[in-house]
Recover the amino acids of this structure.
């Protein structure tokens, strides 16, 4: 994918999306779609039409698109999720559906299908999941049998069932993963092909404005040129190859949904008077229901911007980095949406105030495109290898880099993020010595700790870049540098304390440390230093709350 749009085009696109949503998708309409469990096909097709042409930003220029990069993708997906995650999913499904072609298709196939998306606004669906193959796609049962004529393969007959397919009932074109004789393979299948049928739309917990349907494939015949890449057996590799991008997109959905909820809770709390004053003036409220969620979301954003820049810089795959971004952003978004219901009290629990719907919508983001548990496993396995390869030094090195940063910028939380990374290195090392990753639970918990520590580092670096005026020109500028630094200090303390407490919990819990060694293990983790680093937390939370509520002298939004 190209490095992307210029800042003006991106800003104009985001503004056009907001304007469109204001006109065509007001709250009342979104609530009605949710209540009726209805996919607004006209709206999604209109978004793909000449007026907005949202698909163009995600199609490379050579296929008549505008060639948005990963950074653009994250900003556009966040904006779409702020509007409605169901509608956003209808758009996302087209990109998921076209991804196998984008990464694995022949030039002719790319020209044929990508230009169809750009020129005709074709809706696509991505057919990977099956009733018995969800997280473990290797358990795929759909088959593609060769049809041969005079010894040459002329086509395939596909049989099987697909489950939970977004746009399943409405797509114009489907990519379907099936087992060919050479292994799992993607096939491009047109709507209306005999034998392809969709079940009735699923009655879902959330994203009810998206169409999700099962697919049944009964002797669906496709020509041999419908094999993506024209070579059998590349399906899982092609699916893997796009995880950096696709997980970044879903991370942006989590971020957007979380902020959509908080952006309702925050103004609500300024007008809701309880015990004689607005809720926004009560730290017991703001420091529990608003501030920590903002810090987690912004930590996720920092990591997402880091991943996006690397993708735009030409790095490929970044599967683990995509997983870290998705994991933290979607967990944080889901949590923030839940806290927003609490923040609105009884009103939050009713439909009219939207946060109830946003919470149900946000819930999907920790499930689709890889569940949080699969993200934990992906992260842990990869970083475990890195720990082994570097003889335990990787995270100590990362921590030392942050310490060097802290020497120049003492107030951005880099020193505390470094404590988290040193502790992570010690936890991994103790897990290695005691061979604890044979317990799957420990393996997955390590994934969570990695995500927290790496995101703390990313937010501290982002705070430095903001202070130096070196942020990406297309970066979100909701928070000015001092506020970002305070957010970084808040999140770094949380991450470091998590490393200290969960590190002790799981390493000791799994028998990795003898009773007599617990105190020295805690010393090695840096627990006393991490505890000392909590000093000043409340003052930082006060500052963040003041910024969020416009009470600080510094404005919340950085100068453009
Ligand atoms: C609304 C919606 C839209 C979707 N859209 C699409 C789409 O467009 N295309 C598509 O192909 N798919 C789609 N999906 C499918 C989605 O990607 C899967 O639901 C998801 O990958 C999980 O698979 P599963 O539902 O089979 O759950 P399972 O894999 O059975 O997992 C169930 C639970 O077990 C956990 N688990 C699974 N394996 C392990 C393990 N090895 N160790 C520990 N825990 C584990 C999971 O984390 C989860 O908590 C969609 C799903 C939904 C609900």
């Amino acid at each position: 994918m190209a490095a992307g749009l210029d800042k003006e085009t991106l800003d104009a696109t985001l503004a056009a999306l907001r304007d469109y949503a204001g006109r065509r998708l007001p709250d009342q309409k979104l609530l009605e779609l949710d209540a009726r469990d209805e996919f607004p096909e006209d709206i999604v097709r209109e978004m793909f039409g000449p007026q907005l042409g949202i698909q163009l930003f995600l199609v490379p220029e050579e296929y008549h698109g505008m060639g948005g990069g990963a950074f653009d993708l994250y900003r556009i997906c966040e904006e779409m999720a702020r509007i409605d995650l169901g509608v956003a999913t209808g758009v996302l499904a087209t990109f998921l559906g076209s991804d196998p072609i984008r990464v694995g298709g022949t030039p002719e196939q790319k020209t044929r299908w990508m230009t169809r998306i750009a020129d005709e606004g074709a809706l696509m669906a991505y057919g990977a999941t099956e009733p018995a193959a969800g997280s473990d796609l290797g358990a795929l049962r759909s088959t593609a049998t060769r049809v041969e004529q005079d010894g040459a393969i002329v086509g395939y007959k596909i049989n099987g069932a697909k489950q939970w397919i977004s746009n399943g009932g409405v797509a114009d074109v489907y990519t379907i993963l099936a087992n060919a004789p050479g292994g799992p393979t993607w096939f491009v299948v047109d709507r209306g092909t005999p034998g392809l049928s969709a079940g009735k739309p699923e009655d879902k917990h959330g994203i009810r404005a998206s169409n999700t349907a099962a697919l049944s494939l009964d002797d669906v015949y496709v020509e041999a040129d419908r094999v993506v890449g024209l070579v059998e057996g590349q399906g899982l590799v092609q699916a893997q190859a796009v995880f950096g991008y696709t997980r970044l997109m879903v991370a942006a959905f989590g971020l957007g949904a979380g902020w959509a909820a908080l952006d309702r809770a925050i103004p609500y709390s300024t007008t809701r008077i309880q015990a004689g004053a607005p809720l926004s003036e009560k730290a017991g409220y703001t420091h529990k229901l608003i501030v920590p969620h903002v810090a987690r979301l912004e930590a996720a954003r920092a990591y997402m911007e880091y991943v996006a820049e690397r993708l735009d810089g030409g790095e490929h795959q970044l599967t683990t980095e995509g997983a870290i971004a998705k994991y933290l952003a979607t967990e944080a978004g889901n949590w923030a949406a839940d806290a927003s219901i609490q923040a609105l009290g009884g009103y939050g629990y009713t439909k009219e105030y939207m946060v109830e719907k946003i919470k149900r919508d946000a819930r999907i983001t920790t499930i689709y495109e890889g569940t949080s548990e699969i993200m934990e496993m992906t992260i842990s396995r990869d970083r475990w290898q890195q720990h082994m390869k570097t003889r335990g030094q990787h995270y100590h090195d990362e921590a030392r880099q942050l310490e060097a940063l802290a020497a120049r910028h003492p107030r951005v939380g880099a020193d505390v993020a470094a404590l988290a990374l040193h502790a992570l290195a010690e936890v991994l090392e103790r897990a290695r010595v005691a061979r604890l990753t044979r317990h799957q639970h420990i393996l997955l918990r390590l994934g969570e700790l990695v995500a927290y520590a790496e995101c703390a580092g990313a937010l501290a670096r982002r705070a430095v870049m903001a202070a130096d005026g070196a942020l990406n020109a297309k970066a979100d500028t909701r928070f000015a540098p001092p506020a970002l630094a305070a957010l970084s200090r808040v999140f770094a303390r949380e991450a470091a304390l998590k490393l200290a407490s969960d590190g002790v919990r799981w390493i000791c819990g799994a028998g990795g440390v003898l009773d007599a060694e617990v105190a020295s293990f805690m010393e090695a983790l840096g627990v006393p230093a991490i505890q000392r680093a909590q000093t000043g937390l409340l003052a930082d939370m006060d500052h963040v709350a003041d910024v969020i509520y416009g009470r600080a002298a510094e404005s919340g939004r950085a100068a453009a």
Remarks:
- Residues 93, 96, 126-129, 134-135, 164-166, 204, 207, 212, 364, 367-368, 371, 373-374 surround flavin-adenine dinucleotide (CB under 6 Å).
- The chain has 21 helices and nine strands.
